């Protein structure tokens, strides 16, 4: 048996003195289990999306999600996932966690490292992966008099995915060999394209051929007046402009349909069987069941739940995955990191009221402008999808008894 590094031995001796604080755990599911630790809400949602994709191909895999604080609601993405607060890195808690959960694979995020926990799950056969390592200081929860065990903690990871070259250099300086390192960009939420009937898409594309279209997706009733006002103003410059209104809920849809009927706009009722013609200015539906169709037809998308506070916005990667120029309001706290990435890439633009929304629509009606934003959004989505694909392939290889060598190290 190889001798433990002195820094790790000293840390484990310190961790032995921490009292057990973890609450009783629910029963472990049968079969393979993937454990994921989220640094913050954004990474929790990204990890949930990653595990959901894994489970689509391997439904027998169960999931456990931990965090140092409260986790966001992940029930829509991972309805059967166990969620737990992670106790401090004491040896008793680490041993209890490893013995009870016995994870096959662990995904860790963040710059805070738990050497005691890593040592115990690794000894039990867990393959550990760090996702989204940054060029930032690594932290180990120990007082200054305990020798720095950063390198020992990082050595437990079978693979570390670094955000950029600077993060790779920091990891190399910490003594991590290249065979364990990958440069893969930041961990981010990803969204696959929504389903759509190919026949219906072809029919509607032919019907609307040549018309400029914009989509207001997952709209709340309280935003509809601003959206309709913006559309009326934009049609002054683009007379054939068509707005497709898709509500967030059927309840919103019924209220929005009433607002459209009372407006001066010529509307078609999709749920009532209406097909838009040359005179139609608004196509309104009362649910989002065919949103995949409208995403494919509209080069410009405004994402609802963002003009008024209280909703937190909608996932912009869902729309970006279909190739669209994105507009959104200022209230997007639930997906702030994704919006920030898209804005920095030139794929999304903020609007604050019907006036700025009308201006943005009028500018993006020019096909080249919308196409440039859509292409930038697709690049962002593709980067996240590439990391998801690589990690998924690595996880399957390990679960099937491989050594991960086919998902290799940095060049």
From TrEMBL:
EC id: 2.4.99.12
Localisation per UniProt entry: Cell membrane
InterPro entries xref list: Glycos_transf_N, Glycos_transf_N_sf, Kdotransferase
UniProt cross-references to Gene3D superfamilies, sorted A to Z: 3-Deoxy-D-manno-octulosonic-acid transferase, N-terminal domain, Glycogen Phosphorylase B
GO molecular function, one term: Kdo transferase activity
Entry keywords, A to Z: Cell membrane, Glycosyltransferase, Lipopolysaccharide biosynthesis, Membrane, Transferase
SUPFAM superfamilies found in the cross-reference section: UDP-Glycosyltransferase/glycogen phosphorylase (SSF53756)
Pfam families: Glycos_transf_N
Presence of the UniProt keyword Membrane in the record: yes
Enzyme class, UniProt record, top EC level: transferase
GO cellular component terms, semicolon-separated: plasma membrane
Gene Ontology biological-process annotations: lipid A biosynthetic process; lipopolysaccharide core region biosynthetic process
Residue span, 3-deoxy-D-manno-octulosonic-acid transferase N-terminal domain: 28-185
Reaction(s) catalysed by this chain's protein: lipid IVA (E. coli) + CMP-3-deoxy-beta-D-manno-octulosonate = alpha-Kdo-(2->6)-lipid IVA (E. coli) + CMP + H(+)
Domain of life: Bacteria
Coiled-coil segments on the chain, per record: none
Pathway membership, UniProt: Bacterial outer membrane biogenesis; LPS core biosynthesis
Family membership noted in the UniProt record: Belongs to the glycosyltransferase group 1 family.
Job description of the protein: Involved in lipopolysaccharide (LPS) biosynthesis. Catalyzes the transfer of 3-deoxy-D-manno-octulosonate (Kdo) residue(s) from CMP-Kdo to lipid IV(A), the tetraacyldisaccharide-1,4'-bisphosphate precursor of lipid A.
Name assigned to this protein: 3-deoxy-D-manno-octulosonic acid transferase
Organism: Salipiger profundus
């Amino acid at each position: 048996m190889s001798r433990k590094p002195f820094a790790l031995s000293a840390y484990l001796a310190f961790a032995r003195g921490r009292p057990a604080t973890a609450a009783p755990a629910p029963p472990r599911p049968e079969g393979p289990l993937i454990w994921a630790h989220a640094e913050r809400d954004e990474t929790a949602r990204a990890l949930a999306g990653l595990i959901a994709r894994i489970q689509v191909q391997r439904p027998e895999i169960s999931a456990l999600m931990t965090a140092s604080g409260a986790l966001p609601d992940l029930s829509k993405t991972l309805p059967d996932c166990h969620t737990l607060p992670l106790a401090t890195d004491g040896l008793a808690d680490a041993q209890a966690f490893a013995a009870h959960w016995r994870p096959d694979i662990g995904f860790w995020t963040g710059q805070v490292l738990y050497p005691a926990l890593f040592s115990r799950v690794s000894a039990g056969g867990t393959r550990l992966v760090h996702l989204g390592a940054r060029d930032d200081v690594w932290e180990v929860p120990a007082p200054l008099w305990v020798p720095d065990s950063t390198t020992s903690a990082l050595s437990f990871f079978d693979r570390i995915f670094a955000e950029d070259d600077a993060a790779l250099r920091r990891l190399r300086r910490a003594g991590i060999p290249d065979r364990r390192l990958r440069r893969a960009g930041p961990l981010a939420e990803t969204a696959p394209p929504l389903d759509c009937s190919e026949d219906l898409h072809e029919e509607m594309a032919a019907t609307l051929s040549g018309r400029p279209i914009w989509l207001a997706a997952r709209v709340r009733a309280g935003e509809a007046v601003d959206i309709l006002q913006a559309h009326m103003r934009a049609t002054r410059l683009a007379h054939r402009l068509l707005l497709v209104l898709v509500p967030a809920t059927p309840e919103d849809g019924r209220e929005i349909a009433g607002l459209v009927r009372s407006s001066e706009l010529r509307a078609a009722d999709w749920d009532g069987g209406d097909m838009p013609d040359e005179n139609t200015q608004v196509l309104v539906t009362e649910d989002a069941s065919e949103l995949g169709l409208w995403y494919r037809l509209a080069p410009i998308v405004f994402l609802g739940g963002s003009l008024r506070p209280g909703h937190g916005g909608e996932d912009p990667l869902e729309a970006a995955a279909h190739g669209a120029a994105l507009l959104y309001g200022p209230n997007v706290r639930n997906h702030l990191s994704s919006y920030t990435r898209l804005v920095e890439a030139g794929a999304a633009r903020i609007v604050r009221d019907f006036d700025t929304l009308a201006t943005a629509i009028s500018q993006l009606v020019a096909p080249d402008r919308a196409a440039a934003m859509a292409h930038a959004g697709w690049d962002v989505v593709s980067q996240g999808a590439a990391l998801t694909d690589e990690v998924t392939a690595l996880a399957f290889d390990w679960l099937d008894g491989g050594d991960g060598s086919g998902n290799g190290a940095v060049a």
